[in-house]
């Protein structure tokens, strides 16, 4: 065999290996190297979780959430761990969400992974919400869907000028899950209802002004901030808050800009206080301002079923505990897996990318109260246990 033949076979083997790696990444539930997807290290006084899939914007796989939970619980019990930090690898994203393409594939094939993923993810969300140790999420870059669930329920959420927050699920036939039914209705006025139904994106300091982040720090100071947190000696929650405050005080980026939605808050509060999606739409039509018309345009593209179940989710969630909200959302997730719109939304937005989902039903009027209620029915022994 000549050198050229060896070289040809070798490069064929390498490209085969490359293809295998790509296929492994795409088939998130098969053979992925979980060790590399999420790093968990003890450093200084803290346990540090790094979501490590920068090429995939740190999207969450089943492997990742299944590994985070036991480690989180271990650190919570460990007397030598005083603080838990979570961050994303790379410059683009903290976490762009769950790996919904893989979830949809599993759901369509009636595979157990579509149950396992939501169960594991919501269990982690609940663990963060009830964590006894101070929990600091560095939400630098894209923070959407599942990434919001890994941060918003913790004590401290640190945004930077590059943070982009959104809950865009109604555009893919889902609903703002991961505890969205808990934190969204608790934002000022009807802001959370607006963010949930329209998928509106908040950037940088606006994430702080909306009440989603607790602190704002310049992105080039993040590494130093982390070092200072790790160097603390047996810190209390107050000590950690002091360090974060110090960094926030020094931050000058967009310091004097007003909240991007400031001038629209009255409109948001009046229009989005409708008790039905139809009422909200009528309010926006009646308002007639360019802002209201823009929101109408956005809402008209969303799944009618998603819009209706989301409004009920937030209304119900506004008086429930996080735990009860997550149990409710698990029921909703499984109804979505068995329905049409989620798989169609994933196809239109992520697979074919034609951005033209064919919703069923396609009209709000056709989504009955019985249809909506069916998303909230108990799953009996299959309910999420927290």
Which topology does CATH recognise? Answer: 2-enoyl-CoA Hydratase, Chain A, domain 1
- Give the low-pLDDT segments: 3-13, 15-32
CATH superfamily: 2-enoyl-CoA Hydratase, Chain A, domain 1
What's the average pLDDT? 92
Q: Given the C-alpha coordinates, what overall shape results? A: globular
Cα end-to-end separation: 62 Å
Structural class of the secondary elements?
alpha/beta
- Lateral arrangement of strands in the main beta sheet: 1-2-3-5-7-10
Question: Number of helical runs?
Answer: 18
CATH class label: Alpha Beta
Number of domains: 1
Content of β-strand: 5-15%
Provide the succession of SSEs.
HHEEHEEHHEEHEEHHEHEHHHHHHHHH
- CATH architecture, by name, is Alpha-Beta Complex
Q: Concise description?
A:
49% of the residues lie in helices and 10% in strands. The chain contains 18 helices and 10 strands. The longest helix has 24 residues, at 3-26.
Structure description:
The protein has 386 residues and is α/β, with parallel strands linked by helices. The protein has one domain (31-253, 260-382): 2-enoyl-CoA Hydratase, Chain A, domain 1 (Alpha-Beta Complex), CATH 3.90.226.10. It has 18 helices and 10 strands. It has helices at residues 3-26, 34-37, 62-77, 100-108, 113-129, 146-149, 180-183, 191-198, 205-209, 222-230, 237-250, 265-271, 277-287, 290-301, 304-317, 322-337, 341-351, 369-374; strands at residues 38-43, 46-51, 83-88, 93-95, 135-139, 142-144, 156-159, 164-166, 202-203, 215-216. The strands form 2 sheets. Strands 1-2-3-5-7-10 form a 6-stranded mixed beta sheet, sandwiched between helices. The radius of gyration is 22 Å and the shape is globular.
């Amino acid at each position: 065999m000549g050198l050229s033949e060896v070289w040809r076979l070798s490069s064929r083997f390498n490209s085969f290996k490359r293809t295998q790696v790509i296929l492994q990444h795409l088939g998130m539930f098969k053979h992925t190297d979980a060790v590399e997807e999420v790093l968990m290290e003890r450093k200084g006084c803290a346990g540090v979780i790094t979501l490590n899939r920068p090429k995939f914007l740190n999207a969450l796989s089943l492997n990742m959430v299944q590994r985070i939970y036991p480690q989180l619980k271990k650190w919570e019990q460990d007397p030598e761990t005083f603080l838990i930090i979570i961050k994303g690898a790379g410059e683009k994203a903290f976490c762009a969400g769950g790996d919904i393409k893989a979830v949809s594939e599993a759901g369509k094939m009636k595979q157990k992974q579509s149950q396992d993923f939501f169960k594991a993810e919501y269990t982690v969300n609940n663990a963060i919400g009830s964590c006894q140790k101070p929990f600091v999420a560095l939400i630098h870059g894209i923070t959407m869907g599942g990434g919001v669930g890994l941060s918003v329920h913790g004590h401290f959420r640190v945004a930077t000028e590059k943070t982009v927050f959104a809950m865009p699920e109604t555009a893919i036939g889902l609903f703002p899950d991961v505890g969205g039914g808990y934190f969204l209705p608790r934002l000022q006025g009807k802001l959370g209802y607006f963010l949930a139904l329209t998928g509106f994106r908040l950037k940088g300091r606006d994430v702080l002004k909306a009440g989603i982040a607790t602190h704002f720090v310049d992105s080039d100071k993040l590494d130093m901030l982390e070092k200072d947190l790790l160097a603390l000696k047996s810190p209390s929650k107050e000590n950690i808050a002091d360090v974060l405050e110090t960094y926030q005080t020094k931050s000058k980026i967009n310091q004097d800009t007003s909240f991007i939605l400031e001038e629209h808050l009255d409109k948001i509060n009046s229009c989005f206080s409708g008790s039905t999606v139809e009422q909200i739409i009528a309010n926006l039509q009646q308002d007639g301002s360019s802002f209201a018309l823009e929101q109408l345009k956005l809402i008209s593209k969303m799944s009618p079923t998603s819009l209706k179940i989301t409004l009920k989710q937030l209304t119900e969630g506004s008086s429930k505990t996080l735990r009860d909200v997550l149990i409710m959302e698990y029921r909703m997730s499984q109804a979505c897996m068995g329905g049409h719109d989620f798989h169609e939304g994933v196809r239109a937005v992520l697979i074919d990318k034609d951005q033209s989902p064919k919703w069923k039903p396609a009209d709000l009027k056709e989504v009955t109260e019985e249809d909506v209620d069916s998303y909230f029915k108990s799953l009996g022994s299959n309910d999420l246990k927290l």
